C-alpha cells in the first residue's frame, strides 16, 4: 500500500493513524498541494489527498481508505453492531465537517470572520459533548475508527490553544477528556513529523489571515 500525502493534511493524518494502529505496512509519498504533480492529478478524482494505491487500484476519501485498511488488517477497529457502526460513520462525517470549520478559523481574513468561524467550531464541539459517553473513547472503553478520525482535529486545537489563550473546551468536560486521550495516544504523536508544530504555525503565518496576526510573535 502506498499513501499519497501532503505533510499538513489532517485527512491524510487520519489514514496514517489508522495504518499505524493496524500495524499495516505502507509506503508514504509526499506531494506539494500548491503544485501537484501531473501523475497525482491523473489518479486523484477530486485532486485531493489522501489517496491510497493498492496495486493498480486507487482508493480515495480518508473514511473509505480507513475502512479498507481496517477490513484487510483484522481485528476490526469498527464496532461489531451495525447500528453503532452506522452511528460512528455518521460522526466521522461530522468530524470531517468540523475539520473544514477549523480550517476556516485559521484562514479567516478578519476578526469578524474569525469570530463567526470560532462560533461554528464551538457549536460543533458542544454537539459532540452531547453525544459522548463516559469515555475514554467515543464508544467507551474501545478505541475505534471514529477516534482516528478526530485525533488530527484535536491535535490542531491543542496547538491553537498553546499559541493563544483560547479555550475551546470550557464547559465541555467530556470533549476535553476525549481531546486529552486523543492527543496523548502514541499513534497521534507519531503520525506527524517531529517539526509539525512549527510547520503548522508557519502555514498559518503564510495565510496572513486574522489568526496569523493574532499569533504573530508568539512561540509554541
Ligand atoms: N473528504 C476528503 C477531504 C480531503 C481534503 O480536503 N484534502 C485536502 C488537503 S487537507 C486537499 O487535498 N485539498 C486539495 C484541493 O482541494 O485541491 C477526505 O476525507 O479524504
UniProtKB/TrEMBL annotation:
GO terms for molecular function: glutathione transferase activity. Keywords: Transferase. Gene3D superfamilies: 1.20.1050.10, Glutaredoxin (3.40.30.10). Residues 1-77 form the GST N-terminal domain. It is an enzyme of class 2 (transferase). GO terms for cellular component: cytoplasm. Pfam families: GST_C_2 (PF13410), GST_N_2 (PF13409). It comes from the Bacteria. It catalyses: RX + glutathione = an S-substituted glutathione + a halide anion + H(+). Its EC number is 2.5.1.18. Residues 81-200 form the GST C-terminal domain. The keyword Transferase applies. This is glutathione transferase. It comes from Thiohalospira halophila DSM 15071.
Amino acid at each position: 500500500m502506498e499513501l499519497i500525502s501532503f505533510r499538513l493534511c489532517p485527512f491524510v493524518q487520519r489514514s496514517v493513524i489508522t495504518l499505524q494502529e493496524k500495524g499495516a505496512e505502507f509506503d508514504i509519498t509526499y506531494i506539494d498541494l500548491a503544485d501537484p504533480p501531473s501523475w497525482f492529478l491523473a489518479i486523484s478524482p477530486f485532486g485531493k489527498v489522501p489517496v491510497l494505491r493498492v496495486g493498480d487500484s486507487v482508493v480515495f476519501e480518508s473514511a473509505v481508505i480507513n475502512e479498507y485498511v481496517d477490513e484487510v488488517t483484522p481485528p476490526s477497529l469498527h464496532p461489531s453492531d451495525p447500528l453503532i457502526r452506522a452511528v460512528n460513520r455518521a460522526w466521522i462525517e461530522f468530524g470531517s465537517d468540523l475539520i473544514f470549520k477549523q480550517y476556516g478559523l485559521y484562514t479567516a481574513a478578519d476578526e469578524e470572520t474569525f469570530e463567526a468561524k470560532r462560533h461554528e467550531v464551538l457549536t460543533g464541539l458542544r454537539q459532540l459533548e452531547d453525544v459522548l459517553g463516559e469515555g475514554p473513547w467515543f464508544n467507551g472503553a474501545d478505541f475505534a475508527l471514529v477516534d482516528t478520525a478526530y485525533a488530527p482535529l484535536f491535535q490542531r486545537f491543542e496547538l491553537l490553544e498553546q499559541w493563544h489563550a483560547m479555550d475551546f473546551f470550557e464547559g465541555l468536560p467530556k470533549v476535553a477528556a476525549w481531546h486529552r486521550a486523543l492527543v496523548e495516544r502514541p499513534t497521534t504523536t507519531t503520525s506527524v513529523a517531529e517539526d509539525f508544530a512549527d510547520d503548522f504555525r508557519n502555514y498559518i503565518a503564510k495565510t496572513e489571515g486574522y489568526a496569523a496576526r493574532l499569533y504573530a510573535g508568539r512561540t509554541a
